[in-house]
Amino acid sequence: MKTAVILFFFLSALIPLTSMGQQPVRDENGFTMKSFTGNGSFTPQNQVKAGEVWNSIGPFGGDVLDIAIDPLDPNTIFAAAGVPYVSHNGGETWQVLESLKNLAAAPINTFEASPNGVIYASGPYSYYKVFRSTDGGETWVQKSIPVNASGLDITIDPTDPNVVYVGLTSVLGASANNVIIKSINQGDNWTYFNMIVYCR
User: Fold this and answer.
1) What is the CA 17 to chain-centroid distance, rounded?
2) Mind listing the pLDDT tens digit for each residue in 42-74?
3) pLDDT interval class at 197 (50, 70, 90)
4) What superfamily does domain 69-200 belong to in CATH?
């Protein structure tokens, strides 16, 4: 009995020492890589459990609120994390999208890509404007919108890539909630929906 107790304590002390020798898998920035196993928990990369595995590919250091993939070049991925990021190799590496960052001068929280390769972006402080790129994100132009609000979400009509919808922040003190705008010419001109709700 005494031998069994001694052996138990010996093994208990040995297990933590063994686990200390396992080094976490890190990315090029020194962050610990994680994989989502689909069961509600994160595990170190290369440890596969039941369910599909999700691998962390970055960008690291921010909360990614939206992503979009260029349909004309599936290796080009845009990530909105306040700072706009782009990857040209399917997420292997990321870089700040300086052209959009400098033009917006405000956080970018949403991206959308149309089937014809036009990319749109906006953010919570981009009042009166939405940003558009027609060359895969290399250059950007600012398109004016007709209401003092900023874009929270962008979507494209699946039957017509020229038709763009933008969900907006509400305007304080406004008599109407013009919170959705629509363009039928890729953002050159906009109309808005009056979605006011009367309270009784």
Assistant:
1) 39
2) 444 545 555 567 777 878 766 899 999 999 999
3) low
4) YVTN repeat-like/Quinoprotein amine dehydrogenase (2.130.10.10)
